[in-house]
Write a structure and sequence with these properties.
The chain is of the alpha/beta class. 30% of the residues lie in helices and 28% in strands. It is built from 12 helices and 19 strands. It has a 7-stranded mixed beta sheet, with helices on both faces. Strands 1-3-4-5-2 form a 5-stranded mixed beta sheet, with no helix packed on it. A 5-stranded mixed beta sheet has the order 6-7-8-9-10. Bound molecules: S-adenosyl-L-homocysteine (SAH). The site of S-adenosyl-L-homocysteine has 16 residues, from α8.
Length: 402
C-alpha cells in the first residue's frame, strides 16, 4: 500500500561479519546481532525495516527484516534480493498459507499463519470461522499491522479481528503488550470446531490465542482410546482433550483446571456436544488433585496431562524438568492397568528427547511399566521451518501402562 511496486525500492544494506554467512547460506532464517557489522549505518536503521543483507564480500543473501536492538537482528523474508516487501508481498504469503490449510482441513478452524514456517517471521494468525486473531511478535510485523489487517480482509474477509499482542516474545523486541479489537464486535465466547466437536474460547481475554489448535491430532488419538472408560483431563483449559474423550464415548470425564473461565468454556462445550451428563468440571490444582485421587485409590482408563510451559526460560530447565517428571509420576499412579496416559509439553526450551526422559523417569518413579504408542508434535497447521527445528515446541507422548 505505502510501497509502490513500480518504483525501484532501495533497502538499506547490512553487511555480515566475515565468515559468519554460512548458517544463512545453509538456509537458517535468522541472523544474530553479533554476526552483522553493527556500524553507525546499521544502528541508524529504524527497527522493523526491511534490509538487503550481504556477506562481507558483498554477495547478496536476500531481503531480511532488521531490528538493531534485539538478539535476532535479522529474519529472512526472501532470498531473492529484488523482493519488494509491500502489501502484495504480505497478501501473497497469506494466500499461500490459507491455501495449505484449505487443503488440510474441511472447516475454517485452524492456525492460518505460523511465523517463519509460513514465510512471515514473527506473525501468528488463528482462524475461528469468521473471527481471526493476530499476534505480531516482531517490530517488523507490529509496524505492518495495517497492511496485515488489509491482507486478512482481502483473503479471509472476517467479521471480527482481534489483536492478541500479549506474547512474551514481544518484550524481546521492545514491544509492549496489548489485546484489542481491530475490527467488528465480539460479545461473549466465540465458537470453534475441532475434529467435528464444538468448543468455545475467549480470545479477547483468554490465554494466548484463545485455543490451542496444535494438539488437534493428539486429541483425536487419545479420545479414540477413551471409549467405554473413565477419562481425566488435567490442565484442561477450554476442554479440548476432555470433551473430545466424552464425545468419543468415555463413560465419564473430569476436566481439572484452576481457571474458572476455562472450566466455564469446557462445560459449555460439553453441553453443546450433548455430553454434559458425562462431564464434570473440577476447579483444582493439578498436582494436588492427582495426589488426592491417588490417595483415594481412583484410577482412569485415560489420563491427560498437558500443562502450561514449565520451562519458560533456559535457566529454569532443571526445575521444569523435575516438574515434568513429577507430573508423569503422579499421572501414572492414577492410570488404570492397561490404560492410557498422555503427557504434553509446550516448552520450546525442552527438546523431545529431554521430555521423553522425564516422562520415562516419572513412570519408573511410580513403579509402572508400559509402552510408547505415539510421540508427536503439533498438527500440520503449525508447520516447522526445516532450518529452525527448535520452533517445534510441542511434545505429546502417549503410553499404555501395565
Ligand atoms: N491442555 C490444554 C492446554 C493447557 S493451557 C488444551 O488442550 O488446550 C494451561 C492450562 O493450565 C490453563 O488453562 C491454566 O489455567 C491451567 N493451569 C495452570 N496451572 C495449573 C495448576 N497448577 N493446576 C491446574 N491448572 C493449571
Amino acid at each position: 500500500m505505502s510501497d509502490n511496486a513500480t518504483k525501484p525500492v532501495k533497502y538499506p544494506t547490512i553487511h555480515m561479519q566475515a565468515g559468519r554467512q554460512r548458517r544463512v547460506l545453509h538456509g537458517h532464517p535468522w541472523v544474530y546481532s553479533n554476526e552483522v557489522q553493527m556500524d553507525a549505518t546499521a544502528k541508524a536503521v529504524p527497527a522493523g525495516s526491511p534490509v538487503r543483507l550481504v556477506d562481507a564480500g558483498g554477495t547478496p543473501l536476500g531481503i531480511f527484516t532488521f531490528n538493531p536492538h534485539t538478539l535476532i537482528a535479522a529474519r529472512l523474508l526472501s532470498t531473492d534480493p529484488a523482493t519488494v516487501v509491500d502489501h502484495e508481498f504480505i497478501t501473497a504469503r497469506l494466500r499461500r498459507a490459507v491455501a495449505l490449510r484449505d487443503r488440510l482441513f474441511d472447516r475454517p478452524f485452524y492456525r492460518v499463519v505460523h511465523a517463519e514456517a509460513d514465510g512471515l517471521p514473527g506473525l501468528i494468525v488463528d482462524r475461528f470461522g469468521d473471527v481471526v486473531t493476530v499476534q505480531a511478535n516482531s517490530v517488523f510485523m507490529d509496524r505492518r499491522t495495517d497492511a496485515i489487517l488489509a491482507a486478512i480482509d482481502e483473503v479471509l474477509a472476517p467479521r471480527a479481528v482481534i489483536l492478541r499482542n500479549d506474547g512474551t516474545q514481544r518484550a524481546l523486541e521492545g514491544l509492549s503488550e496489548e489485546t484489542a479489537l481491530a475490527k467488528g464486535e465480539i460479545d461473549g465466547p466465540i465458537r470453534l470446531e475441532e475434529n467435528g466437536v464444538t468448543f468455545f474460547a475467549n480470545p479477547l481475554d483468554g490465554q494466548k490465542t484463545g485455543w490451542f489448535y496444535d494438539q488437534r491430532d493428539n486429541r483425536a488419538f487419545i479420545a479414540a482410546l477413551a471409549t467405554g472408560g473413565r477419562a481425566i483431563d488435567f490442565y484442561s483449559y477450554n476442554g479440548g482433550f476432555g470433551v473430545q474423550c466424552a464425545v468419543a464415548g468415555a463413560t465419564s470425564v473430569v476436566a481439572v483446571d484452576r481457571s474458572a473461565l476455562a472450566l466455564e468454556n469446557a462445560t459449555r462445550a460439553a453441553e453443546a456436544n450433548g455430553v454434559a451428563d458425562r462431564f464434570e468440571a473440577r476447579r483444582a490444582d493439578a498436582f494436588q488433585e492427582m495426589e488426592r485421587l491417588n490417595a483415594a485409590g481412583e484410577t482412569f482408563q485415560v489420563v491427560v496431562a498437558d500443562p502450561p510451559a514449565f520451562v519458560k526460560a533456559k535457566k529454569d530447565l532443571a526445575v521444569g524438568c523435575r516438574a515434568y517428571r513429577k507430573m508423569a509420576r503422579l499421572a501414572a499412579k492414577i492410570t488404570a492397568p492397561g490404560g492410557f496416559l498422555l503427557c504434553g509439553s509446550c516448552s520450546h526450551n525442552v527438546d523431545p528427547p529431554t521430555f521423553a526422559e522425564q516422562v520415562a523417569r516419572g513412570l519408573t518413579d511410580a513403579g509402572r511399566t508400559g509402552r510408547i504408542l505415539r510421540s508427536a508434535g503439533a498438527g500440520p497447521d503449525h508447520p516447522v521451518h526445516p532450518n529452525l527445528p527448535e520452533s517445534a515446541y510441542l511434545k505429546a507422548i502417549v503410553l499404555q501402562l501395565d
